[in-house]
Target: Glucokinase
Amino acid sequence: MADAPLSLVADIGGTNTRVALASGPRLLPATIRRFRNADHPALAPVLRAFLSDAGSPRIEGACVAAAGPVRDGVATLTNLDWTVDGDQLRDATGAARVAVLNDLQAQGHALGHIDAANLRVLLPGPDRAPTGPRLVVGVGTGFNAAPVHDTATGRLVAASECGHAGMPVRTERDLRLARFVETAHGFAGVEDVLSGRGLERLHAFACAETGIAESRTAAGIMAAIAEPGPAQEAARLFACLLGAETGNLALIHLPFGGIYLCGGVARAFAPHLLPLGFAEAFRDKGRFSAFMADFPVAVVEDDYAALTGCATCLAAGAIG
Model:
């Protein structure tokens, strides 16, 4: 491995950063390490520690995926006080070629390179092979989505920050929820209800609606899904809101090639989404309800897909 051209790839979330080596487009799973962001002041010390532990290999390229908007090659993390740019990557790794992507762009570049065993099908779609644009939807510490287009000149994964658009409001209860949530920041965004902390807000709302005094973390809510009460109701709200918002995004982007839910919260919820009403909310689009059956939906259960996407993107020279 020491003689092979190596790249460094990293996936910077709001809570953890995953780092690995890649040989061309091939991720080297044995090299993957996870770092808690709270233990480090910035990305550069993380990368230096990783490379030191790996024996200081020569790195020819570096690509990182950041959970936040990327503008002019500079990423500003949405839920973390870090910024990342190409100069930092060059200084920390010695790489000549560097790239900074939005994390959902990296997930989009991973499509087609994920083992089928790591795809949990929720809605199979029409009885034919899916073709056309695809959509990745990330649900974790934050929320975001990105359309994926394969063109004659390569793959294009368009960045967005749609998690900060307004949350879906379909019922009177949704409106009460929006008004409950907006007391924190003056605006009820998608990410405020569809993320780890969003699940906690839904639980607080469910408690307020029923007059029950109870406080749970996101992990505690997930552990209590089977028990009737605020935790189960919060989970039901989450599944329905995720279905509604994913359906909205499907109508905006027309991803006939499939919708892929990714991120830690999406993976944790995967077994519960259909029993709690995801499909019904996804298809609840009035006269377009039948049309929604044209969109297959799956959950990506590969925790390192973004690293694969970074390696693929860097090897192809497809930045963005």
